[in-house]
## 1
Amino acid sequence: MTSRPAALGGAPAFPDGLPFARPAAPPLDAVARRVEPSWSKGTLTNGPLVRELEERAAEHLGVSRVVAVSSCTAGLMLSLRALIGGGAVLLPSFTFSASAHAVVWNGAVPLFVECDRRSLQVDVTDAGRRANAGDVSAVMATHVFGAPCDAEAMEALGRRLGVPVLFDAAHGFGARRGQRRVGGLGDVEVFSMSPTKVLVAGEGGLVATDNDALADQIVLGRDYGNPGDYNTQFAGLNARLSELHAATALESFAQLEESMASRLATVERYHAGLAAIPGIEPQVVDHGDVSTYKDFTVRVVADTFGADRDTVMAALRADGIDTRAYFFPPVHRQDAYTSVPAELPVTDLAASEVVSLPVFPMDADRVNRVVEALGAIQRHAGELSGARVA
Ligand SMILES: *Cc1c(COP(=O)(O)O)cnc(C)c1O
């Protein structure tokens, strides 16, 4: 290949553009057929389709209870409310903001911990070290981009501290930690069904647990704390899931295996092609684990690649390729968290290196063109960096 990056005057790899993501929305007519019985009965929310979704998800995940809620954020807020009464919650900064927001909405303090630079997952050893800094009431971690974190180490840390273990499993429906399904790890796991996730309801979340008392608290909490007689037991939320969203989720669930398989095929093609490009390091997933690859994130190691992440993203954009820098900025660098002290050099470095590539079901040709564009950018990295400085 002798082609030049579009940023240096070459022909763009994707003249019509390549989008970053395309929601895996199920067919509308199938959703309409599924919601019809609830609709004609006048049951628009929290009805039989929500019950069916909860039962199917619990069976699939192998947990005793799944409670459907209006979002993963609400599910995390209600789970923490049921499990802690303030204190500090250990969690990584390399996650989506909602993980930390759920802590703050409960009047608790986020105690940010490092991530591992290669897996981008919570660094549990670092979490253990920082556990001495405060009155820890829970430990929490994210299955980053749908790849399971080191759940056994998190569970061991929770046992050592005598506190509950929560997982933000927003990306993880369909993932496996060895033989264990994501959904049954720790005390509770919360999934998202918002448009960019692999299981899609439009909006929605699923709380999975084997703890019946906890599940009962979520059931109450999603309905204002109202047990049915309007004598509310605590200040709950309206976090119910509508029947239309449940119908969408059930149709999406029917496509889950197929959409996971096609994402995996895309990722395998990426892996094969990117291995030849110096300084591109894909997120490392533990051997034997299954990731949903909600995102396919690589690190641009500037010294080896010859240019930094921002230069690479700009050059890919010139080639018509839409990317994101997930998760940048890390939570502790966001304006909402400036008052929370955190010294996280590994997280800062990793977050400055990440770029997520398009990963919706793409044919081999499109994956190859992304790889070739990235290869051309690397071969001209010096010129591109110079152009940016000038
Ligand atoms: C998407 C996401 C959330 C938020 O999910 P919602 O359903 O939109 O509330 C939380 N955590 C992570 C890691 C996410 O990616």
Note: The first strand starts at residue 65 and ends at 69.
## 2
Amino acid sequence: MEQPLIMTPGPTFICEEVRNAMARPITNPDLDMAFLEYYHDTCTAFQKLFHTNNDILILGGEGILGLEAACASLIEPGDRVLCIDNGIFGHYFADFARMYGADVSYFSCDYRQAVPIPELEAFLNENKGFKLATLVHCETPSGITNPVDRICPLLKKHGIISIVDAVSAIGGERALVDDWAMDIVITGSQKCLSASPGLTIMSVSADAWHKILNRAVPIAGFYCSLAIWKDWYQKRSFPYTQPISDIYGLRTAVDRLLADRQALERHAAIAAAVRKSLLQAGLELYALDGYANTVTAVQEPEGVAFADLFDAMLNRHDVMIAGSINILKGKVFRIGHMGENCRIDRVFLALKALDAVLRDLGVNLTCQIHDEFITRANRSGEVSSEPVAYTQADGK
Ligand SMILES: *Cc1c(COP(=O)(O)O)cnc(C)c1O
């Protein structure tokens, strides 16, 4: 089966090296101490990616497991939790908190803009008593990156533990977990890491561990408990059998990312070139500021139904793009340019197809999107990287 070019904001393209790593023979992860060391080294690699000395945990479940596990492990019934809400993922984070008995308050702001710091600061000065706050680094449905470098230190100043959904950010946006006092930071294998879906990677600060290990009420559940992971390496024992093949793939992916010294610069440069080329052609972005470097959300042009756009992109040009979800469903379409998809050649192909399809659907474009993109992308020196040839065969 020929695979289309998958340009969605996750899952992303998985390179052959990562797929081959997943095909390696397995071992018994509980008895093979060489595997235990390999796993520990994998956690160390993530400490580098997160810029942290905090513990790294890898959970066998998609990013959502990380969000729920953080809530399950930290929240005791009646705890006050602040939900920082400027987007769909941010808003629905509160549902996980409530499932574990949290008394939730929202700090809600404009969904088309990054979280405003002065307003948040004023809110925190007036509203006290929060144990935790949930927030999202990159709001994938709307293509907005929040200033976690300002938000997390502010929360820390108020004695509030932060739980950060950085699933579509880590690897594509700068994240200095220790410098920015981020307590729990969660990412997933299938976004900027470009590994197979199915793993959560998270960092846990000393303050977060203290709360997790000093509860009045025990954690309800086992698989969602982070406490079962405390000191696994010192004890030389995993809490349950680890998904070895996924770990092999993940390790290869994180090593590739760490070796790629210009990954963040390339994400910023390609994202900027995508935005400018779309705007130049007369399209409108959903975000008004805080533009994400990993995904761009574009307002659906007048008279164009997303289903027609999606079908034409896929069936005529072999490119898969995404719509959005919830309140943005049918209003925006999204192009992911994260991880292995953050390459000039892949983005160029996607934009060339988009240009042709929008013209076919009767949209009046004021320039060629892909030409504009390539000119701008080539102009920014940082983007240059070893070329990654996309071939259909590679996606088989
Ligand atoms: C992808 C993503 C998740 C995980 O959600 P899925 O829909 O299961 O992929 C969580 N948070 C954010 C911000 C994401 O982008």
Note: Residues 93 and 219 are 19 Å apart (CA to CA).
## 3
Amino acid sequence: MRVPYHQPYLTGNELHWLQAALEEGAVAGDGPYTKKVQNFLAETYQFKHIYMTTSGTHALELAMLLLDLTPEDEVIMPSFTFPSTANAVLLRGARPVFAEIEADTLDLDPVKLSSKITSRTKAIIPVHYGGIGCRMAAIGELAAKYRLTVVEDAAQGVHASYRGRYLGSWGDIGCLSFHGTKNFIAGEGGAIILNTTDHDKLARVELMLHKGTNRRQFLQGQVDKYCWMELGSSYTPSDLLMAVLYAQLMEVTEITKRRKAHHHFYTAGLQKYADDGLIRITTIPVDCTSNYHLFYLLFRNETERDRVQIELRMAGIEAVIHYLPLHSSPMGQRLGYRPEDLPVTEQVSRTLLRLPMSTGLKQSDLEYVILTLQRILEKMATGST
Ligand SMILES: *Cc1c(COP(=O)(O)O)cnc(C)c1O
């Protein structure tokens, strides 16, 4: 039996909407399917303004472009994230400042965050790891006190919420991803959310999305020719991909229900080992409603983690590690960071293992993973490995 870490899940309606888009000639950016998904997301998740982008990475880059960063500016983020979060800041010439995560949620630690704030800090990028929301109330308080912009990296957080408010709607700006490995997929795609009613800001992001031109105003008949107005790039996704995403978004409830069932099955099968202190498993704080993006285990040490990963692999089960911390990566060290700067992040990175988590996993897959893992953990508990 083989259980891959991830396989894209199809609802069955993707081809229908893709064909409809092709027949309508909706192929380039900013077409009818882009509008459909924007409207759905804005209404379902209470986003003030949302614009689809070519990726989550590009949404982050656009967010940093909007902040008008200079080389003197600093942007605080966890080191335990995907390189896109830091690249977006570096591409604007500013400095990413890596802060520590909480050992339980693996999200930015608001308490340790405050020590990283300087007169140069411009923004904070909380990353909602695995769809578990950061402590946004505490982060928001700090941001208000020091007048910082909050840009949520909610790439993994679509459909998840914190204290009853959806992720992506807490910050000044939110960034989403619909990459093929996320819960709802376009293949490649993302979105930027602006939780503002400031018309100047909204007008500016529309220019930046369209190569720095006022093409959108032109298409809406507001100006009689379009020209270069701002710094910008090509950030609008093809409507064909948005048609695929539309099919996925029509099933957000069903997809989440399935992932929740996987999560509960894993939890039930592993709770005993967590209670015995052999492993820690993904926990969802009371303030959070998860979208069940990931299910991870944390081991007592790296050796045990690596051993379990190998044994699972020998049984055909693909369990995978996650981020190598940005601060201790070759690029992070070139920026002047040392591995020992963020001990919690280092420890988590060395001991974390993610179990297969695809929407389409079958009950027989889940049972096989748990039975295999139980066998391995039993051996580990009795010290016979
Ligand atoms: C996936 C992801 C991104 C990048 O999104 P893409 O759509 O793949 O560009 C950024 N940050 C985090 C935390 C992610 O998980």
Note: The longest strand covers residues 49-53.
## 4
Amino acid sequence: MKYHSTRNHSLSSSLSKAILSGLAPDGGLYVPNELPKISIDDFDATHSFPQFACQLLQPFFENDALATILPELCQSAFNFEVPLKKIKDDTFVLELFHGPTLSFKDFGARFLAGCMTELAKQQAITIMVATSGDTGSAVAAAFHQKPNIRVIILFPQGKITERQEKQITCWGDNVTAYAVEGVFDDCQHLVKSAFAQESQRFSYLSTANSINIARLLPQMTYYAYWSLHYFKQYQQQPGFIVPSGNYGNVTATFWAKAMGFPIGDIVLATNANCVIEDYLTTGEFTPRKSVQTLANAMDVGNPSNFERLRHLFGDFATFKQKVQAYSVSDEQIKQTIATYHQQYGYLICPHTATACYIQQQLNPGPWIMVATADPCKFETVIEPIIQKSVPVAPQLVSLLTRPNKKIRILPELRNIV
Ligand SMILES: *Cc1c(COP(=O)(O)O)cnc(C)c1O
């Protein structure tokens, strides 16, 4: 399988090269040259999740040097539960937060780290990543102590929660956490200028955010796996409602559907950052500054994977026909967290709440709502609403006791060494 840039079909690359470089040379994002078509009967329902993932991903690795490590990579990256929970009739939650840092970002980050570790046998790699929360912790945990790889994480000092900061700064060794005096955009700007101006200084410089194709590919696996199992059990195609910020996770849902997995409607749930709904109304894509909301991992004003979605559908008419998106306010998020707690005794994080709110407004389904983070990461939002403490997941308990290591800097590239 070869990959090409969303901006130029003839700019093609191997998988390994696409992973190493992140962005295509023309500034576009890498996409597979084709999405292989599957038949439901190709897949053995008794296979474990990692076995299933390996079979699904095989064609995407064909003829690449990384193909030989794929089975072992799936076993080691997906070594946690991926449960589907029933809330009530035709309403299910897909819990993607049982990995080491308690968000779905663990799937992509662990998979990418496995690929990069193999590629780092050829050359030393520096991963630089700007984060406003969950990406930083997932990347730090996934790359910690990986040989020949250095990780530089930039986060805005004082702008993330204490628990989020803990999960980024507790690693040490090959992971350096910089607390930047500024906002997320300053961190992002530092990464961009490092690529533009000083890539030699950081040996082979790469990145680990969701523009990287190795984060997107593994995210298809849970949609594929559960749509298939659901279909076999209930003879219906479930729709998916996906809490979205940079649109990486939902791009993977559309790709899985395009491959032929039995997926019904796909709905993007956004917070007040609603560029995609505006696009669906006007046909104009107008990025803007992000606004802060309770679902902070989705506070994105210029979603990078929009370009992959537009590339998938080709024209606006098709895009409009295939994509649904609804925006949810902070007030509605709070109200949904309360309702789910009272009616179902089920705790949801503010991101998951956007999907749950939207489901209440849609046709009867069946619907699978995607739960992107463990509620215990967002106790400062949830506890005042439910008037109870949120149980802390064991993964987080052990991190909370480790010492913090961070370097505070002003947002200038020379401060990063
Ligand atoms: C990153 C994140 C999202 C948004 O996912 P995208 O792939 O950027 O659309 C939603 N919820 C949580 C908890 C996240 O960490």
Note: The two ends are 37 Å apart (CA to CA).
